[in-house]
Design a protein that fits this description.
With 463 residues, the protein is mainly beta. Helix content is 11%, strand content 50%. A hairpin with a 2-residue loop joins strand 8 and strand 9 (172-180). The chain is globular, with a radius of gyration of 23 Å.
């Protein structure tokens, strides 16, 4: 597969011939997103700016949010003071340090290494890479306050989750700090618990990332209904860059997001249905004017769709479902992202909305091990996912330039077949075979006619 990117005159241009290792992190490409986009449309390189110390600001904000959660939790802590004094002895249990019923501290370290087995596009010298290296600390205080601190080793934005979570009641919990925006079932699943090496391209491209915010969440109707709704600081913490970094480009305008799931059947091992759940999700914010459209990337990180000019509301919608029957699990999502493009035409008028649609469906069969239980097990899985770019205007002549009113449609389709061996609670081995292909229904781009296969193995270790 040879990815293409739109040129200034709307004609396709090859993004490069070198084949990067699939699933490798291409952070250096993201740092130059804004500058590359400006040069492609003839604006020249962006003026250098002094990058803010986002790490220091993030730490200060998160510390303040954690302090707020502890202040809120004080009445609840006082109510449970008597029970926590019943057992004040220190002990190590199930990988955590406990002080009676009052304190639980659980450190963790997680590492993932990837090994490229086959790549049919061109030879690759470096077949080994680190996928994830993280350390962190989870904990609970007095049965009312939970917290998590997690840091990525050797990354540009090392701090990941830093939050406190106060349990006021079963139906109401308050979380404050830096954490994932509640959108998409697969996006909110930990990278160390995925069925495949990576999330689907649709979920990766369309989901918001982590951000500073406050979220109310809880369970109702005997834990049948779960909700999450939050307000976050930035307009879009993933897609809006400053000096090429994934950070906020504006201030004072935030993101509102929410997710609701209904699980009418849970853990019914005796019946034909073990788990059944449905969910909907939304997220909305206002994007500033500029080249802040969604990027299309292959699973190896290469771009196949460049940024478009946007200005106005960005709306995300999602529908999800999960069904487990004995050893079989079937799940999937439908996602849509719409960007307004107010006054983005060359004449100063409005352009039609930019529309990004995505979907995936995954089937998993537990070959060895108990269904729905942790422990040694072997799973085989298959997934089909699709990511498509288009515009609301489909009648005029189609172009690929970033100010096109009718954006020439382009979609990516991928099949992933995998096997996961959970050796024990600490070690997992995964092997994935991936087939990707780009589809251009109007034939305005020069695409590789043959879909290519890549096979990769991952070793995961976690405490």
């Amino acid at each position: 597969m040879t990815p293409v990117s739109p040129g200034q005159d709307g004609s396709p241009r090859e993004a490069g011939q070198s084949q990067h290792w699939r699933l490798a992190r291409l952070s250096h490409a993201r740092r130059s997103d804004a500058g590359l986009a400006r040069s492609r449309i003839g604006l020249g390189p962006s003026r250098p700016q002094r990058a803010p110390n986002t790490t220091r600001c993030t730490i200060r904000a998160c510390v303040g949010a954690l302090a707020l959660t502890f202040v809120i939790a004080q009445p609840a802590v006082a109510q449970n003071g008597g029970r926590s004094k019943q057992d004040a002895g220190l002990r190590w249990k199930d990988g955590s340090l406990r002080a009676g019923d009052a304190v639980r501290l659980e450190p963790h370290a997680r590492f993932q290494t990837d090994l490229l087995l086959t790549d049919q596009e061109e030879p690759v010298d470096d077949r080994f890479a680190w996928a994830r290296r993280r350390i962190g600390l989870d904990g609970e205080l007095f049965g009312r306050v939970e917290f998590q601190v997690e840091r990525e080793l050797e990354a540009e934005s090392p701090w990941r989750d830093i939050y406190g979570d106060v349990k006021i009641a079963q139906a109401l919990r308050i979380r404050a700090g830096r954490f994932k925006v509640p959108f998409s079932m697969e996006h909110t699943t930990s990278g160390f618990a995925l069925d495949f090496l990576e999330r689907s391209t649709a979920v990766t491209a369309m989901s918001p990332g982590r951000d500073l915010g406050v979220m109310a969440h809880g369970r109702l109707a005997d834990r049948m209904l779960k909700y999450e709704v939050g307000l976050f600081k930035h307009t879009d913490s993933v897609e809006v860059p400053v000096d090429g970094n994934r950070a906020d480009a504006t201030s004072g305008v935030g993101t509102i997001a929410g997710r609701v799931t209904l699980a009418p059947v849970r853990d019914d091992d005796e019946g034909t249905t073990r788990d059944l759940a449905f969910g909907v999700a939304f997220a909305r914010n206002t994007m500033p004017e500029g080249l802040y459209g969604i990027i299309g990337r292959a699973l190896d990180g290469k771009r196949f769709f460049e940024r478009m000019y946007v200005n106005g509301a960005r709306t995300r919608l999602g529908v999800e479902s999960l069904w487990s029957a004995g050893p079989f699990t079937l799940k999937g999502e439908l996602l849509q992202l719409t960007d307004e493009r107010t006054q983005q035409a060359t004449t100063g008028g409005d352009l039609s909305n930019l529309i990004v649609r995505g979907a995936y469906v995954t089937g998993t069969w537990r070959v060895v091990g108990d269904s729905g239980r942790k422990g040694s097990a072997v799973d085989v899985s298959a997934r089909f996912d699709r990511l498509a770019f288009t515009s609301a205007n489909t009648s005029d002549e189609a172009f690929t330039n970033p100010r096109a009113d009718h954006v020439a449609p382009l979609s990516q389709r991928a099949w992933t077949f995998g096997a996961t061996w959970a050796v024990n609670r600490w070690v997992r081995v995964q092997v994935n075979a991936i087939r990707e292909q780009l589809i251009d229904p109007l034939g305005v781009r020069d695409l590789a006619p043959i879909a290519l296969w890549t096979t990769t193995m991952r070793l995961q270790f976690g405490l």
